[in-house]
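>> Question from a student workshop board

For tomorrow's exercise we were told to take the sequence and the ligand below, predict the bound structure, and bring the output to class. My setup keeps failing. Could a helper post the expected result so I can at least see what it should look like? The ligand is alpha-D-galactopyranose.
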Amino acid sequence: MLIALAVLLSWPAPAVEEANALAKTPPMGWNSWNQVGCFGLNEQVVRAAADALASTWMRDAGYRYVVIDDCWQAPARAADGSLRADPTRFPSGIAALADYVHSRGLEFGIYAVPGSATCAMANNAYPAHGIGSLGHERQDAETFASWGVDYLKYDWCNADTNDGLDRVAAYTKMHDALARLPRPIVYSISEYGVGEPWTWGHAVANSWRTTADLSPTWASVTSVIDEQASVAQSTGTPGGWNDPDMLQVGNGTLTDSENRAHFSMWAIFNAPLFAGTDPAQFGATDRATLTNREVIAIDQDFAGTQGQRLAVSASTQVWGKPLSGSRYVVVLLNTGNSAARVSAAIPGQWTVRDLWLHTDTGTATDTVSATVAPHSATMLQLSPS
Ligand code: GLA
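>> Workshop helper replied:
Here is what the output should look like for this input. Compare the format with yours to find the bug.
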């Protein structure tokens, strides 16, 4: 049995310089990468995703940004140096696609890189050249704004070794280019946590990746969870969030309970929530996981700190986070292969609600406990009673 003592129920919010006035809660949406990767990306896929988000509970649950990741670009820039969309897979062009997304009550996002090469050029042999934003930062920012872009993912892709760039300088350059625009654009940076962006990202961007790419396996999910334990000390703040990568809910080998545990943890991290599965094809269970409004509310609630790891053993963990209204949330996580009794000592008298059972399960004084199945999590919201 694992017992955690939560001595701090609230943390003072750190004074930080903000990148802009955007993303006051963690951004949510859909991103193409975990669904279709590189060559599967085309305008039909994006339109279908927008349609499905709009016609299901997804948009209403908060999934607002429809983001096209790497491989939207034509093989080369136009004669005037501007970026263009791949003419075969995006025959209508990006502005029309952004219009379509906007017409569904959603917002539109795009992908670019600070160096000379995108990740897919190296990792997927994407046949392009000169499509990085190096030397084109202002021009690309203006192009994106003219297309109606609302969100930019700016992905490192070895710009240090390829192009000799410095992370803070390169990310600040695009920040400055975006700041000149009349259009607000949420700025998501991705350098996999290598340069400890949680120490400098607040002044530059609205979110920063903290880890390498998340794979759709339990081993990858638990490895990223473990990595957040130290990062969580440098907590995100409204307008700037630690990003443990996009969701893999519904993908790969993840089981239903693993998906729920993954989603519970991303919520207690105050992580950006980007689905990466076809929203038109979700099974009922995946849809119920991704649209669990009580868990989404935890993700969107920031009361001074993201979730912190309160205790860890070989196969169990306790994470906790203060919520608005003097409430508190606890995740009792079982990473192991057999059921485990997990307890957290949270001083106070509480009414306990199970956010996956959607049920008030009783009251507790100073300690909450649950028997947690293998590879799963129990998420409990505690309200003063
Ligand atoms: C990197 C990023 C991914 C995705 C791909 C695209 O691996 O971490 O999220 O953007 O590049 O090539």
